[in-house]
Specification:
- This protein is α/β, with parallel strands linked by helices.
- The strands form two sheets. It has a six-stranded mixed β-sheet, with helices on both faces.
């Protein structure tokens, strides 16, 4: 059975790569203060509550790609459209999308645009629900005061925010509990008990 896929997306410099490294338990993604360090998708197999899944780290979605404003992706200004395409591919493959935002900066116009992009990417299912589910992750909530700012992110229209600290691991357990609970039901491969016969012999 194919493993569920979790895509980490958001504007540049919200801590996606730090969270990716937290989930992997290794320093696989480069973390830098310069926005736009991550350009290509990075993959890692993670596990939580007995469910194994693939995590995809993506480059920051820069909302200024088609405007005259200065790009947010300082380190990847020449690759903005390619990064957006890579992120779109990750979202299209995902069974769950984690939209990361920054508790220290609050809601920004870039966050609003990325949230809108993600809502447009969802597909409506027969039961009326939308797929894939989007989890709103308020990162860099490294203390109680910053965690208390999480309700402002309801403005993005993506449901309950999850305040976490990717750096310290705070709040990640509750988030991952709900993420793995949203995965499609795991179906074990049926054992093939049929009788198998091989016919052998020299030619003719």
């Amino acid at each position: 059975m194919a493993k569920p896929v979790v895509a980490l997306v958001g504007r540049p410099n919200v801590g996606k790569s730090t969270f990716f490294n937290r989930l992997s338990g290794e320093r696989l993604a480069i973390v830098d203060d310069v926005p736009g360090t991550t350009r290509d998708r990075l993959f890692f197999e993670s596990e939580w509550n007995g469910r194994v899944f693939t995590v995809i780290d993506t480059g920051g979605i820069d909302p200024t790609a088609s405007s005259r404003q200065s790009p947010l992706s300082v380190g990847s200004a020449d690759f903005i459209q390619e990064i957006r395409t890579q992120a779109a591919v990750a979202v299209d493959e995902a069974d769950a999308v984690l939209l990361l935002v920054d508790a220290m900066n609050g809601v920004t116009p870039a966050d609003l645009e990325v949230a809108q992009i993600l809502r447009r990417s969802q597909k409506k299912r027969e039961d009326g629900s939308f797929w894939p589910p989007i989890f709103l992750v308020v990162n860099k909530a490294d203390n109680a005061d910053l965690r208390d700012t999480a309700p402002q992110f309801y403005e993005l229209g993506l449901g309950d925010p999850y305040p976490i600290s990717a750096l310290h691991g705070t709040g990640t357990g509750d988030l991952l509990d709900d993420v793995v609970a949203s995965f499609p039901e795991q179906v074990e491969d049926e054992e093939d008990n049929s009788v198998k016969i091989a016919i052998v012999g020299k030619p003719n």
